[in-house]
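Renewal narrative, Specific Aim 1. Our central claim is that a sequence can be written position by position from structural information alone. The example that follows is taken directly from our test logs and has not been curated for this report. It begins with the structure tokens describing the chain, in the order in which they were read.
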């Protein structure tokens, strides 16, 4: 009986090893275009995704408008995580995205931020005082967070007065760099860039009220190139999972309205 039991244990171990190799053999790679504002959370999600599924996500970060042009010109992406909902819908209507395979993965928040403590007050009155030389924002023509920044200033009635001081970045990551390096004393960034676990990570900031700009709904879309890729399909599913959504919340995003 001891010999039989030992044989059984060896057989179980062998089957488990076969299962591991089978999982590894089925692992695939997904190329993902990610809006710059979602850089930090997506890096964490990609690590968790690989750990939990065995699939690898290869990430590229940039401006939504720039990614749209690249995808339309044949850039080899399988999944696109946009900073808005209109660009994925447009890609689907133009045949570059897969119909019925898009959804909101996050709702973004806008922050007026300075790397220096005390510069930005808790109500954003610094915009009306004008006690600064440069104000950084993302290019509103290609970056939804830049468009939201312009809408905010328009609704506050300060857009025209401040326009000469604008320093535009190609995307929200470049805006954060402008402000953190001191090239601009303050700027409109994504909350996720300066927020973690319920608090500001550095400097001073004003969380822009959501009613001062259009909702920043961020949609993920499966692209035509990825529709036969098991890793792409797995990532679309994983973005809806609790581990992924926990990371999204940790960086200050909303999950629905």
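The sequence written for that structure reads:
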């Amino acid at each position: 009986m001891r010999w039989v039991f030992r044989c059984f244990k060896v057989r179980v171990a062998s089957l488990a090893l076969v299962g591991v190799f089978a999982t590894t053999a089925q692992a695939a790679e997904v190329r993902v275009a990610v809006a710059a504002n979602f850089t930090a959370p997506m890096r964490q999600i990609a690590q968790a995704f690989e750990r939990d599924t065995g699939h690898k996500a290869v990430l590229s970060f940039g401006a939504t408008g720039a990614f749209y042009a690249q995808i339309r010109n044949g850039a080899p992406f399988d999944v696109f995580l946009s900073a808005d909902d209109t660009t994925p819908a447009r890609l689907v209507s133009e045949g570059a995205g897969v119909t019925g395979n898009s959804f909101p993965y996050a709702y973004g928040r806008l922050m007026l931020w300075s790397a220096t403590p005390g510069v930005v007050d808790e109500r954003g009155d610094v915009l009306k005082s004008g006690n600064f030389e440069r104000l950084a924002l993302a290019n509103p023509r290609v970056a939804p967070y830049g468009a939201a920044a312009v809408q905010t200033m328009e609704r506050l009635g300060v857009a025209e007065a401040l326009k000469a001081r604008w320093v535009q970045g190609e995307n929200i990551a470049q805006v954060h760099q402008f402000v953190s390096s001191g090239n601009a004393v303050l700027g409109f960034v994504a909350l996720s860039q300066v927020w973690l676990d319920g608090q500001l990570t550095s400097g001073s900031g004003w969380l822009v009220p959501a009613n001062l700009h259009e909702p920043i709904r961020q949609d993920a879309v499966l692209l035509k190139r990825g529709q036969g890729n098991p890793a792409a399909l797995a990532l679309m599913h994983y973005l809806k999972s609790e581990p992924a959504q926990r990371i999204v919340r940790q960086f200050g995003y909303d999950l629905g309205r």
